[in-house]
Structure formats: structure tokens, C-alpha cells
Hints:
Oligomer: heterodimer
Distance between the termini of chain B: 44 Å
Number of strands of chain B: 16
Helix content of chain A: 25-40%
Structural class of chain A: alpha/beta
Mean pLDDT of chain B: 91
Shape of chain A: globular
Low-confidence stretches of chain A: none
Largest interface: A-B, 54 and 55 residues
Strand order of the largest sheet of chain A: 6-7-3-4-5-8
Radius of gyration of chain B: 22 Å
Number of helices of chain A: 11
Strand content of chain B: 15-25%
Radius of gyration of chain A: 21 Å
Amino acid sequence: MKKGSKYGIHRVIEPKGVLPQPANKIDNNMDEIYDNEILIDVQTLNIDSASFTQIEEQAGGNHAKIAEIMLDIVAKQGKHRNPVTGSGGMLLGTVEKIGDALKGKIDLKEGDRIATLVSLSLTPLRIDKIKEIRSDIDQVDIDGKAILFESGIYAKIPDDMPATLALSALDVAGAPAQTAKLVKPGDIVLIIGAGGKSGMLCCYEAKKRAGVTGKVIGLCHSERSTKRLIELGFCDYVFAADATQPVAVLEKIEELTNGHMADVTINNVNITDTEMTSILCTKNDGVVYFFSMATSFTKAALGAEGVGSDVTMIVGNGYTKGHAEITLQLLRESEKLRKVFTELYA
Amino acid sequence: MWQFSHTRSLIFSQGMKKGCRYGTHRVTEPQGTLPQPALRLDNTMEIYDNEALIAVSTLNIDSASYTQIKQICGSDAEKMKAMILDIVSTRGKLQNPVTGSGGMLLGTIREIGPEFHNKSLKKGDKIATLVSLSLTPLKIYKINHLDPNSDQIDVEAEAILFDSGLFARLPDDIPEKLALAALDVAGAPAQVDRLVKEGDVVCIIGGGGKSGILCCYQAMKNAGPYGRVIVVEYAEANAQRIRDLRLATDVIVADATNVMDVYNKVKAITGERGCDVTINNVNVPSTEMTSILITKGQGCVYFFSMATSFTKAALGAEGVGKDINLIVGNGYAKGHADLTLNIIRESKPIRELFEKIYV
């Protein structure tokens, strides 16, 4: 077998010298694998929601047209990176072959069911046939193959829950795992965008870590998600507000925390202009964790300086050690969470 | 309790109106925003109970803003003066409508409200504001001197410092303009001081610039004799300066956007483990992956560069499966002004260099 690079640079066709993610075209020939690659027999693609929405709109909702667009993306790039949104997604499949350099050194064997936790925007993929498109949950069943690089992260699909349920939670695995690392007993935690998929997981994990002496405050947007979060019962306080209005939210948090403000703020909301709200609601030496992909780096950096706040602002890293295990465990621990996830996303 | 609404701010305390800590009481348009994103601020020079009034002598205009003004006016000093006066009379602050940026100011404290929380500030103190002019209420009475080639202009003006506003008292032992040049990048070395521990392997990308030099000095000091400070610099002249000043243990000349080249060169020094802390100071886009790859798992990348893309950093680390802390550079850290001025006091070579280049 040929020796491969840890980061998959050996598969980059053009432009040369870049990593697989920014590359325009990567080699998706699966007849032969490199010594540090894992070949996966793919069953389901979980397309990133921004990407799927764009494809669906372009296709006018027509399934045959969606299939055509997807096949075209992969034919041109060797991977499923949406040329408009730049995003990918994840996949579910079975390990077919493991390169010699990895065999016996990793906790995977041929036949294991796994979900890849690296983006499809950098994963070599070949689609032989599109079998079924489930528009409501952005999932597409296919016949095809994919390659996982040595640096690629994955999770084994557990036996005790349906694969689609596991996949829906693993999609946002980074958020609750980072919450677990950041929140200490007794902390006041503010979760912005608390009613969404990653928000609900974060609320549960935050309450677990903050304990009885801590306080978890959930900020939601819609009435429906507010009601859902109240019913889940993870938070000490839930309210609905527009997260782009810093002054109004600040006043509310002041009141709820007696002026102490949040020790940790986790921003999960995928809309722009919520940086200032996150900064102002956090105490001077607290931490703001930005999971939202709509975060503007300069608005956060200049915003904190502008109000003289010494907060630590962290860029949400979708990967942290043990994130898949932590996230799947939440669905086992909480019957309520599992029920809501099954209803909404599986 | 802070007061936010205009009706409530009409409560008088010692004859003065009560202000909000963040200055939202000065926002006239659009309501509900903070002073920085606001289109217009009330620049009436009558203070609220928690504000300070500054008699301004010099405006240090942000370089992106000044360059834009200079271009539009064809480097004509009179036209530039008119344009600056027009911005301030329209917006109540010197926030360039195109670049969105401001700058800093130098002045003397003329009046302090009774509720201004920092009691160490006295009437007559000479200060530099460390918050941007893009959020500072300003009224210019006269521009005394403007040189199209210098972004420091002399004025007769007044400005308001909000209760949350940052400032530094100007020291007696450092010339004003040198102090201003150093304070402009005060956040960076202060954050380095927090992040770098003894024995750490540190990489400073873009180490040859103003903030880079200060970061190198602090990193060398913190990492100690068994640590390592690696500088990645694009320009050979800057790299030579770092070598001459002995501000790093290793200097690499490379293009920081060329991921694999930098990765291989850093790896040649650190081995497979990579760096404990990486500080990115380089103001060009697409250096996120370089910073991520050269940092070890569980390590930390501090992004000071305003050219950083949030999504490239976030998705990049996930894409290569790296469990590292990615931090958004905060221009403010407690004690940052003192720490930075102390570097100028401690290091004669840096002081001489800054005097030569930036004053």
C-alpha cells in the first residue's frame, strides 16, 4: 500500500499544497486505499442543514433534481462540499477495509458501524446510487464509498439506539462536550439559543455540571422552543427574547443574577449580531463560548474591548476528546431528551 | 442599578443626569444599540453623573480610516480637515463610515462625574483613551494641525469617557507619542503573559511587527531558559531585527498562508509534538490552518489578527480532529497598559526601535 499523509494531503488534486477541505478537487478513487486510510461502505449521508436547504431550493423541492445536483457536486469535486454554502455534513456507514498502518492500532475493525465526525467537505466520496431522500431530516440513503483519513474522527454507532437518532445527536457533539469542560459546580451559565438541537443538549449538560448551587438560564427565540425547554425542566430559568438586542437581554440577566452576570455564556444561535449580547451578559473575567457559525470575529474582538470587558472568548471547536461518548451518553441518561430528539430529528 | 431608558435617565442626581455604564444613554439612533454600532451619538459636552469630560489635544486616527480619508481627499490637508469635521458633526463621534474604525485620543481630564467608578482618575490627569473613537462622543472645535502623512492630528476638542471606558494615565518617563504607539497594541503582550508558562514552546506568527515584538519579549520572559520561542515572519528585514534583538530562540522566514511549508519548518524545530501556545499576529487572511496544525493537541491558539475568519478556525480544527483551544483576541486585559509600558521601560533595544519606527 502507498503511504498517505495524516491529514489526507495525498488525495488533493488541485490546487496543490492545500488541505483537503479548501481543495477544489480531491481523488475519490476507492479501488486502492493508502496505508493509513479507512474505507467505508456508505449507507446514509446526513447533509449539513444549510447545504441541504440550498440544494432543495435550487431543485425546487424535486427529488430527482436534488439527486442530480448531489451527483454533480461529487463528480466535480470528489467530495460533497456544497459550492454555495461551502459546508458538508456527516455520513453513516460500515468499515470495509483498514489500511495496514492503522490495523490493530485503532479501536475499529472491519464490519463496525460508524459515523464520521469530520465534515463531508473534506471526505473523499463516491456515490454509486441515490436510494432515498428524506427531506425533513436532511438525510439521503445511498450506495457508495468514502475514505476516512488518519486524522479523521468517528464514532461507533451504539447498539442501544437507532442509528438515525445517534446521528442527529452526533451532528452537534462538540457543544455539550465543551460545556462539560467549561462549567464548574456553582457556575451561573447562560445558554443563548437554548431551544435548538445543540442548545437543549448544552442545557442538560450545563445543569449536570453546575449542580444544585449553580444556575442555568436558557434564552430561546420562538414560543414553541421556549415551551419545549421549560417542559424539559433542565434550566432554572427560561425566557424568550431577541438575542440581537443587547440592552434588553442585559437588563434581564442582571435581574436574574442579582448583578453577578454569567460565569459562562454559550452561544448556540445561528443568527448574526449576537456577539455583544454574549459579552455583556458575561461577568468581567468570565468565558464566552461561541458555537454559532454566524459569529463575526471582529465584532467579538472589538466589542469586548469597546466595553472594557476582560472576558475570554473561545471559538467553538466542533471536536473535543470524548465528545461522541459524552453526547450519546446524554441520550441514555435523559429519557426526556431522547424522546424529544426522537420526535424532532430521528 | 444602571439606567437605560431615556425617561428614567431624566432622574437628577446632584444636578446631573444618571448615565448607563456603557453609554447607551448617548445613543440617539438607532435606539437600543450600544454606542459602537450606533449611527449617531449625542455629543453634548455636559456630563452625566458617571462620565468624565476630556479636553482633547491629539487624535490618533486608526490607520485604515486615515488612509481612506486621505485617498478620498487626494492628500489635501484642508479637504481632509473638512471631511473629519463632517464625520464628527454627522455622527457625534469619529467613526469612519466606510471602514467602521476609529482610533484613540490624548487629552486632559477636565471634569469627572460623582458616579464615575474609577476613583483614581483626577481632574488635570493626562490620559490616552484605550477605547475606540468609534464609540466615543466627540466635539471638535478646531483642527490646529493636520499632516496628511501622519495619522496623529492636533485639535481643540472635547470628548466623553464612559464609566466602562478604558484609559491609561500617561507616564512621566516616556514621551507621549512613544507611549501612544505602544498602548495601541497593549492587549497582545498582556494576553501572552497570561498564556505562556515556564518551559512552553511558543510560536508567534507575524512576530516582526509592532505587537509581535512586544509579544516576543513577553513570551521569552515567561517561557524562560528551557522554553522556546519560534517566530514566523514574512519579511527578511523583520526577521533579522528579531534575531538582532534576541527576541526569539528560532526564526523562520516563511509565508504564513503556506500551511505545509510552515508546518514542516516548525516541526523540524519542535518535533511531532508541536507548540503549546501559538499567537497569531499576522494581518492577512487564511493563516488559521497554519496556526492550528503547528499547535499540539490540548494546546492553545490565540488569534490577534483582525483578518481571522471565525468559520475557517472552527471548521478547520474539527476537520483535522484537533482538540485545541481557539481564542478570540481581546484587546483588553486587566493591567494591559502598565504591562506594555513596562516593556518599554525594561527593554532599551525595544524602546530605541519603537522611537525610530513609530514616533
